[in-house]
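Q: What structure does this chain adopt?
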Amino acid sequence: MNTQRIIPCLLLRNSGFVKTRRFVDPVYLGDCFNTVRLFSEKEADELVILDITATPAGRPPNFDLLKQLAGECFMPVAYGGGIKSMDEMRRLFKAGFEKVVLNTEANRNPKLVEEAAREFGSQSVIVSIDVRRKVFGRYEVFVNGGRQATGFDPLAAAKRASDSGAGEVLLTSIDRDGLMEGYDLEITRRVADAIPVPLVACGGAGRLSHFREVFHDGRASAAAAGSLFVFVGKHRAVLITYPSQSDLAREAY
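A:
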């Protein structure tokens, strides 16, 4: 069985899922419960749900909604967005989530990653790092939904995350988000080589061969995608899909 995972990444905005381009211009995808059910029926490897409004709005996770969503998932599911405390993480695990995703708060308070890894185990803690490519090819970490520059180098951020106990790093290219033109293999490879924990690449998948590229050339352990699984055709009509295992074996690995 192939151990490289291919993971739908769903962006939660209020009570519905959306898809962005370069972290802006969200397109509504439909009812969040129906979307999760479809990915469950299609036997996706895992699922990542990221609330893109929680942190910018300064509010906690919507626990009532998330508990209902977790009840629809028949695969491992991770949640990120607005998490600031151990108590919030305990509530998420109790609701049925297998993993938590820390982004802005991991940058502000790396000790929280250490505490979470110690209590829940490293395998349950993902640190998410959003990056933009700056002038002269330099990469920079952004937080708060891509709104705030940190001045931090992504390799240093990834090393700090793994040193703090994170079991995985989710690396998202803001520049590639939603464009469906392929992953940023350069930064993916550099970060993957710099850390001892699995790297999940995100941002840019537009066809199944992009997974093969990011696994082999980008050295990612897993690949997350959004647009590829929710849009079809040049007009980007909304259609929830997930490839069959035979298609993945032939084109993605």
